[in-house]
Write a structure and sequence with these properties.
Length: 318
């Protein structure tokens, strides 16, 4: 079985490629390098420099490498940017996926594993989020991820298609310094960036109704997340399915607890600045990972210490 991984040159994609290789699964990467990095893809992995919307290039890649399934990660993922440029997000994420799915239909590829997001839940009515929790996205980004799930569901109703969508919670850490997240858009990299510039990390609000006033999230190690894709792809290779799965640890951690861990791991005795709330931030939510553990036998192996430690080692190696 060979999987085409769109967006395989990105931070998460590069980790998934390694996990697929270790699991003995064939993998081909397609990435337009708009945000991905060519060096993230090992020399022994076939690489196609193209956009998912380039139907001819995608079809050639699918045929030439006898691809049996598509793992679709290539997308824009900045929530704030999606609010400012909604049509760009609909074009890139929904239009791109629509084109990719058409090419799959045209070439007879009938297995699709989709990179979705906890952003589909918006501000959940309960902190503990399972797959039955209503999906009310609060940003164009979240909407485009939900639309992607809907396209898969609709296609599966209309004809043969095996699919699954993984809803990622807050991804952090790295398996190796060279694969680290180069973006500085999330809490852990933002805190490390602040420290490396001699600034105090910031807490976006500590007047939430949580145990220490700061927001609660579910942080998941990127290596665990990659393994979840291996488990889901194997399931699609084995049998028909069409499911969405939360991928988290099932443990809520506050922003201040993350920063305490950063203090412990870095050995830097910093203070943090509490600033105003960031608009649109839900107070608290974390995954109920029961379904993925029951159906796919996956559960997280790494904890917050592993995430922050690996991110810090990578930061120092920059
Ligand atoms: C985490 C917490 C911030 C930076 C995002 C997407 C979501 C999903 C996961 C992909 C929040 C606080 C942050 C800082 C802070 N993405 N924070 N100081 O927003 O929970 O989730 O990634 O699908 O859709 O929205 O992640 O890392 O930005 O923030 O206090 O300097 O840390 O307010 O509570 P978020 P994040």
């Amino acid at each position: 079985m060979t999987w085409l991984l769109t967006g395989g040159a990105g931070y998460i994609g590069a980790h998934i490629v390694r996990a697929f290789q270790q699991a003995g699964m064939g993998v081909v990467v397609l990435d337009d390098l708009s945000t991905g990095i060519r060096e993230n893809v090992a020399a022994d992995v076939p690489f196609v420099d193209a956009s998912v919307a380039d139907s001819a290039a995608v079809a050639t890649a699918l045929r030439e490498h006898s691809v049996t399934g598509v793992l679709h990660l290539a997308a824009k993922k900045a929530v704030g940017e999606s609010v400012a440029k909604p049509l760009y997000y609909w074009d890139e994420n929904v239009g791109g996926m629509r084109s990719l799915l058409q090419t799959c239909l045209d070439t007879g590829v009938d297995r699709v594993l989709f990179s979705s997001s906890a952003a589909v839940y918006g501000t959940p009515p309960t902190e503990f989020v399972n797959e039955e929790t209503p999906t009310v996205p609060m940003s164009p980004y979240g909407e485009t991820k939900l639309a992607g799930e809907w396209m898969l569901r609709d296609l599966a109703a209309a004809g043969p298609l095996r699919w699954a969508a993984l809803r990622y919670f807050n991804v952090a850490g790295t398996r190796a310094p060279e694969l680290a997240d180069r973006g500085v858009a999330n809490l852990v990299p933002m805190a490390l960036q602040a420290l490396s510039e001699g600034r105090n990390p910031q807490v976006f609000g500590d007047d939430y109704d949580t145990r220490d006033g700061s927001c609660v999230r579910d942080y998941i190690h990127v290596v665990d997340l990659a393994e979840a894709h291996v488990a889901a792809a194997r399931r699609l290779d084995e049998r028909d399915t069409g499911e969405v799965y939360n991928v988290g640890r099932g443990e809520g951690v506050t922003v201040k607890e993350v920063l305490e861990k950063v203090r412990e791991v870095t050995g830097i005795d910093f203070r943090y600045d509490v600033v105003g709330r960031r608009p649109g931030d839900p107070a608290a939510y974390f995954a109920d990972p029961t379904k993925i553990s029951k159906d796919l036998g996956w559960s997280a192996r790494y904890d917050l210490d592993d995430m922050v430690r690996s991110a810090w080692e990578a930061w120092q190696a920059r």
